[in-house]
Specification:
Layout: H1 11-48, H2 50-87, H3 93-128, H4 132-167, H5 175-186, E1 190-194, E2 200-205, H6 218-226, E3 230-234, E4 248-254, E5 268-274, H7 277-348, H8 363-404, E6 409-413, E7 419-422, H9 424-430, H10 449-464, E8 472-479, E9 490-499, E10 505-511, H11 513-534, H12 536-553, H13 559-590, E11 598-600, H14 602-610, E12 628-631, E13 639-641, H15 643-660, E14 669-676, E15 681-688, H16 695-699, H17 716-727, E16 730-738, E17 741-752
Parallel strand pairs: 12-14
Antiparallel strand pairs: 1-2, 1-5, 3-4, 4-5, 6-7, 6-10, 8-9, 9-10, 11-13, 14-15, 15-17, 16-17
Helix pairs in contact: 1-2, 1-7, 2-3, 2-7, 3-7, 4-5, 4-7, 7-8, 11-13, 12-13, 14-15, 15-17
């Protein structure tokens, strides 16, 4: 079943968004109208109060532009939305566009007519408020004042040049008296004689009473030297704060060269005179009048722009109101039809979500409510189905999680034996990735041919029999070896089968290899006890009888017979010793005492055991000497163990390692201890560079009488396993593999440390 697409929006959300949209429109219109009214009030105040207008001109202009821009953006946005709805072919778009166009024309044509007439009226009225003749008269008066000041400056410059010619031959020492005389003749208020470095030589007038008189700049001196005279009017820079008595004119001229010395430098004469106060007052009055007139002329443009902006804003308000009215009325007419059309389209597309409804009392509102009730019922029904599907999916996910984490293997087969599903446990037990074999026959999977055929036959027999129980169960032994070696990897498992609904077949597998191995170990223990009891007692009389026969008959027989007797007795005694050793090993395995756990230094215990393997010339017990390399971790703490049993563990592991390396080119055995702070355990590792363990031995290495030695009993590792279990130690057995080649074997035990 194809799932329906998700609903576009719940009904409540649609109704809420529609209400929010209407409120937004109402609030926006109210704000725009309020701002327009405020602007018109401010403009009215500005025309009656020039100071208020001048202070708030910038703010009024910016506010006008902002409101106009906002209204223009809203109008453009409304038209873009209408165009988008029309382009998408949405139901009711043509009606909305037609209504918007009609109301826009109704509001736009009168507004444009009023706008054009008002624009012409405002432009012509404001221009008539200012007279061009007044502006010309003010410019003439301003030019007259500037010419008068320039004339006064020129007269002072001429007088200063005449005075400079009189001072040309006057030495610096007597220049002060000459300056005072010349100042009185010229009517100046101050005269100063400067050298080329702007250092004062002599002065007369106000500068005599100043500690640091104002010095002429190098540019002023250069202008006086090149232009014959430099003049400047001071005190008129800021007309708002000027004092008519502070206005003055300053002239600087260069003195003609004198004959007082060849190395004399150029000197400059500076004269300062007061400008008549009446002249200053008249000039300032003309300048202030011209400034005010220009400011008002500039304000004329601003006022004209303000009125035009207000008219433009009024036009925008009219157009915006017309468009908004068209949209509102169009929505009132087309909204129920749009809701029904949208709902029918969604239902046709498979969307059965609840639809919005109108609360109006007319027939169209009732139709939308009936349609919404129908879709609500459909939505409730689909929600119930989806809830059921979610519950089924959750149950299926939980079942899959359980199957994935089961140690037992689970395989689902069809009636013909094709694999439909399997869990990781089945792949682990059978040693094959069954997930890659889905759809294949179980009896055709490589390595499982006989097993698959037997399972298929067992299902067929079970389904044809009178079923007393609802499942069948049968043990199997599988050879999971992928090589040419026979019986390399034997797995014992129990298979259970049952019929599933729909004809499918359920196969459950349990690997009982470890259980069988434990049962074998227990059986061997019982055999060991009986061998120790039944065989050991006759061995001593047999050995003693053979030795007594040799002692009694040796002297009575000829030499050839005596040699035969000695050889036979020796054979009997050797075989009896071998039988005793065998019985003793079985006895030790069967009667291993309970471990007495005490703190033991594992490194020291290993050193004690290794003394048996270090002899001069030959190895212990007559075996070939194999080097034993010791790598002990000095940080190892004491462990909990039975020292006697741990010695037996080390001895058995070393003996097996030396036997495994016998005949190798460079035999070596390594005994290693490691302390792990993370796991808080001590590891004992014995490794060799022998041939390693075959795969079938690794599976059953700790069972009695499982060995690779031709003369061994296979009890060494079995005893080590029992002792490890007594100590609560973890034991691991594996081959050392490098680049795909077995490089030897490794046995490791992990012990808990003493608290």
């Amino acid at each position: 079943m194809k799932a329906a697409p998700p609903p576009a929006a719940p009904p409540r959300k649609l109704i809420a968004s529609s209400k929010a949209w209407r409120w937004a429109i109402v609030v926006g219109v109210a704000v725009a109208m309020g701002i327009g009214i405020v602007l018109m009030f401010l403009l009215t105040q500005a025309t009656n109060n020039r100071a208020f207008y001048e202070r708030n001109y910038g703010r009024l202009f910016v506010l006008n532009m902002v409101v106009a821009g906002v209204l223009l953006a809203v109008i453009l946005w409304v038209f873009v939305r209408l165009a988008s709805r029309l382009r998408r072919g949405k139901f009711g778009s043509r009606l909305l566009v037609k209504l918007a166009a009609i109301f826009t024309l109704v509001g736009l044509v009168p507004g444009v007519l009023i706008y054009v007439v008002s624009y012409q009226f405002v432009s012509r009225s404001i221009e008539s408020w200012f007279d061009v003749k007044v502006e010309g008269a003010l410019d003439a008066g301003l030019n007259l004042g500037r010419a008068t000041l320039d004339t006064a400056a020129g007269e002072l410059a001429g007088k200063t040049r005449n005075a400079a010619s009189q001072l040309a031959e006057t030495p610096d020492a007597s220049a002060g008296l000459a300056l005072e005389r010349l100042r009185e003749q010229m009517g100046a208020i101050d005269m100063v004689l400067w050298n080329a470095s702007s250092q004062m030589i002599a002065s007369a007038g106000q500068s005599r009473f100043q500690l640091n008189p104002e010095r002429p700049t190098p540019q002023q001196l250069r202008a006086a030297r090149t232009q014959r005279a430099f003049t400047v009017v001071e005190g008129l820079e800021d007309p708002a704060v000027v004092n008519t008595r502070d206005a003055r004119v300053k002239a600087i001229v260069a003195l003609p060269a004198s004959n007082l010395g060849l190395l004399s430098e150029t000197r400059y004469l500076q004269a300062t005179a007061i400008i008549p106060p009446t002249l200053v007052a008249n000039a300032l009055a003309v300048q202030e009048a011209n400034r005010e007139y220009q400011e008002r002329a500039l304000a004329r443009e601003g006022l004209r722009r303000m009125y035009i902006g207000t008219l433009t804003l009024s036009l925008f308000l009219a157009v915006f109101g017309a468009v908004l009215l068209a949209i509102v009325l169009g929505n009132q007419l087309a909204r129920p039809l749009l809701l029904l059309a949208a709902g029918v389209s969604e239902v046709a597309a498979g969307d059965l979500s609840p639809k919005p409804a109108l609360q109006g009392k007319d027939e169209l509102g009732g139709l939308t409510r009936a349609f919404a009730d129908m879709t609500q019922q459909l939505a409730d029904a689909r929600e119930a189905v989806e809830l059921s599907m979610e519950q089924v999916s959750a149950a299926r996910a939980n079942l899959q999680t359980i199957l994935d984490n089961l140690t037992a293997g689970v395989i689902v087969l069809d009636e013909d034996g094709h694999i439909q599903a399997s869990n990781p446990g089945a792949s682990r037990i059978l040693g094959l990735p069954l997930s890659d074999r889905q759809g294949a026959l179980l009896r055709q999977v490589p390595g499982l041919e006989s097993f698959g055929a037997a399972v298929q036959q067992r299902f067929d027999d079970f389904l044809t029999e009178t079923q007393i129980i609802d499942h069948w169960q049968q043990p199997f032994e599988l050879n999971l070896s992928r090589g040419a070696e026979a019986h390399a990897n034997i797995v014992t498992l129990v298979a259970r089968g049952a019929q599933m609904p729909g004809g499918a077949r359920l196969l459950v597998l349990d690997d009982i290899s470890e259980i069988v191995s434990a049962q074998r170990a227990q059986a061997w223990g019982e055999v060991a006890r009986r061998l120790a009891h039944e065989i050991k007692n006759p061995l001593t009389p047999i050995q003693l009888s053979a030795e007594r026969l040799e002692m009694k008959l040796a002297a009575k027989l000829p030499d050839p017979d005596r040699a035969i007797l000695a050889k036979s007795v020796h054979t009997i005694v050797d075989q009896v010793d071998a039988m005793k050793r065998l019985v003793n090993e079985f006895r030790d395995y069967a009667r291993l005492p309970a471990a007495q756990l005490k703190p033991v230094d594992l490194n020291e215990l290993i050193h004690d055991v290794l003394h048996l393997y270090v002899r001069e010339g030959e190895a212990a017990h007559g075996a070939a000497q194999v080097p034993v390399r010791v790598e002990l971790d000095a940080a190892c703490p004491r462990i909990l163990g039975d020292a006697q049993q741990l010695r037996q563990v080390v001895h058995n592991l070393l003996q097996n390692a030396q036997d495994a390396t016998e005949g190798r080119p460079h035999p070596e055995v390594v005994v290693r201890t490691q302390w792990s702070e993370t796991s808080h355990r001590v590891r004992l590792i014995v490794l060799d560079n022998g041939s390693g363990f075959p795969e079938h031995i690794l599976k059953r290495a700790f069972e009695p009488y499982v060995t690779t030695k031709s003369k061994g009993t296979g009890l060494g590792l079995a005893v080590v396993k029992k002792i490890a279990d007594e100590h609560g130690a973890r034991i691991d057995l594996k081959n050392r593999v490098a680049e795909g080649v077995i490089q030897g074997a490794q046995v490791s035990l992990s012990f808990a440390v003493a608290s």
